[in-house]
């Protein structure tokens, strides 16, 4: 019988047990941080910007869609010359252009277009800023489609006359 309870365990059962794998991972992360700090000190001495540590999100690569053309146009002139009463109870109802994906209100149209084409907005929409490479067959298909479109437009104009 032990002094700390009835029968089942040893004298040292009350002591904390250590998870060696957890502490090995912590030590590895600390060594990586220290190594990065040394590299950044050397870079600062040479006048270079420091290297930023990788975020955990970068390790888990999220597949983003390639940049593509908008399906619907952006109509900035729909409210030109109109007077509207604007209530500013919260940030969404402030005057200006509101982006739901980024939860931001922008005051003028030029800045709004810049925002729509910007990196942060595209990331919030799940798109990357990289453009897909077009192969020869897709270019031929696109040119054929545009040719058919032009021909049908010419035919429709003949019938309308």
Question: Would you kindly provide a written description of the structure presented here, covering whatever features stand out?
Answer:
With 161 residues, the protein is mostly helical. Among the domains are: 19-61, no CATH class; 88-130, no CATH class; 137-161. The protein contains five helices and four strands. The chain has a two-stranded parallel ribbon. Strands 2-3 form a two-stranded antiparallel ribbon. The protein is elongated. The model has no long low-confidence stretch (mean pLDDT 79).
Largest sheet properties? 2 strands, parallel
Radius of gyration: 31 Å
How many β-strand stretches? Answer: 4
Strand content is: 5-15%
- Rounded mean pLDDT is 79
Q: SSE order, as H and E?
A: HHEEEHHEH
Number of helices: 5
Structural class: mainly alpha
Please sum up the structure shown.
The chain has 161 residues and is mainly alpha-helical. Helices cover 43% and strands 9% of the residues.
Keywords:
161 residues; mainly alpha; 5 helices; elongated
Describe how the helices and strands are arranged.
Elements: H1 20-45, H2 56-59, E1 65-67, E2 97-99, E3 104-106, H3 109-116, H4 119-124, E4 127-131, H5 136-160
Parallel strand pairs: 1-4
Antiparallel strand pairs: 2-3
């Amino acid at each position: 019988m032990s002094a700390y309870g009835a029968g089942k365990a040893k004298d040292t059962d009350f002591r904390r047990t250590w998870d060696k794998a957890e502490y090995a991972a912590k030590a590895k992360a600390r060594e990586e941080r220290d190594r990065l700090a040394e590299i950044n000190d050397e870079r600062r001495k040479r006048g270079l910007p420091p290297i930023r540590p990788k975020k955990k999100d970068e390790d888990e690569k999220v597949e983003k869609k390639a940049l593509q053309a908008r399906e619907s146009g952006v109509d900035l002139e729909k409210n030109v010359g109109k007077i509207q009463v604007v209530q500013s109870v919260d940030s969404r109802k402030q005057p200006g252009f509101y982006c739901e994906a980024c939860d931001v209100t922008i005051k003028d149209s030029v800045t709004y277009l810049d925002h729509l084409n910007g990196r942060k907005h595209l990331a919030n929409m799940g798109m990357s800023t990289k453009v897909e490479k077009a192969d020869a067959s897709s270019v031929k298909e696109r040119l054929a489609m545009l040719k058919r479109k032009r021909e049908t437009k010419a035919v429709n104009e003949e019938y309308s006359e």
